[in-house]
Design a protein that fits this description.
The chain is α/β, with parallel strands linked by helices and 231 residues long. The protein has two domains: 2-81 and 186-230, Periplasmic binding protein-like II (D-Maltodextrin-Binding Protein, domain 2), CATH 3.40.190; 84-175, Periplasmic binding protein-like II (D-Maltodextrin-Binding Protein, domain 2). 37% of the residues lie in helices and 24% in strands. The protein has nine helices and ten strands. Strands 2-1-3-10-4 form a five-stranded mixed β-sheet, sandwiched between helices. The termini are far apart. The model is unreliable at 223-231 (pLDDT under 50). It binds 2-phosphoglycolic acid (PGA). 2-phosphoglycolic acid (PGA) binds at residues 18-20, 47-48, 65-66, 82, 113, 117-119, 185. InterPro entries: LysR_subst-bd.
């Protein structure tokens, strides 16, 4: 019991997160660490494929990512929505259009994430399912680069809503009102099956699973997200 109590006050945790989770996980950690000032949490920010590799090597205590693959010996629990949206510069013709059909946007140049990114993977699955192909796309391996490229007028971008809080507030980017969007996704807390948790790790896990949604959900713009959530 004494060890347990000590474990709650001290310890070093390693958490691997996909790059898109960098927009909310520091806020979560700030809250957690204010309750547990003796616990140090190291955050490794990388992409989905790299997080999966780390989990396979049993390196981190836990990870945060979009949907992990089936049958990879992993336990995954969803804890918060992760809507995927298409963004445009505010002066782009599509920025103010309503109910834009997918066939209208595939003619545009898209700036998409690199292979290995969960964001990219989700968008590609959507395209495959809907039978459309992008006619013109450029790859950038960071959400920030994509957002700046879109602001600069290079094309449309595909990003998680979590990346957009600042730009939406400042009116620097607009969400395209695309039919069937936002794509509904979720964030998952992931660890290896049978992982032995320290007391500190267990309490971080419980914290994320129970408090994440209230703590950090960004202002979800608008009716579409809410309407979809009711389904
Ligand atoms: P990414 O992951 O940052 O690798 O695109 C996001 C996700 O998996 O949802």
């Amino acid at each position: 019991l004494l060890d347990d109590i000590k474990g709650l006050h001290h310890g070093v945790l390693n958490v691997a997160v996909v790059s898109t989770a960098e927009y909310f996980s520091p806020y979560l950690l700030a809250r957690f660490c204010s309750h547990h000032p003796g616990i140090t949490v190291n955050l490794d920010v990388t992409n989905r494929d790299a997080v999966l590799k780390q989990l396979a090597d049993n390196a981190p205590d836990m990870a945060i990512m979009g949907v992990p693959p089936d049958g990879a010996n992993l336990v995954a629990q969803s804890f918060m929505p992760n809507p995927l949206v298409v963004v445009a510069a505010p002066d782009h013709a599509l920025a103010t259009m309503k109910d834009v059909p997918i066939e209208r946007v595939v003619r545009e140049r898209f700036i998409i994430r690199e292979p290995g990114s969960g964001t990219r993977d989700a968008f590609e699955r959507f395209l495959m399912k809907s039978g459309w192909r992008l006619q013109n796309s450029m790859e950038m391996s960071s959400n920030e680069a994509i957002k700046h490229a879109v602001m600069a007028g290079l094309g449309l971008g595909v990003v998680s809503l979590h990346t957009l809080e600042m730009e939406l507030k400042l009116g620097r980017l607009a969400i395209v009102d695309l039919v069937d969007f936002p794509l509904e996704r979720h964030w998952y807390l992931v660890h290896r099956q049978g992982k032995r948790f320290s007391v500190a790790a267990q309490s971080l896990k419980t914290f994320i699973l129970t408090e994440a949604a209230q703590a950090v959900l960004p202002a979800l713009p608008g009716r579409k997200t809410r309407a979809k959530a009711k389904r």
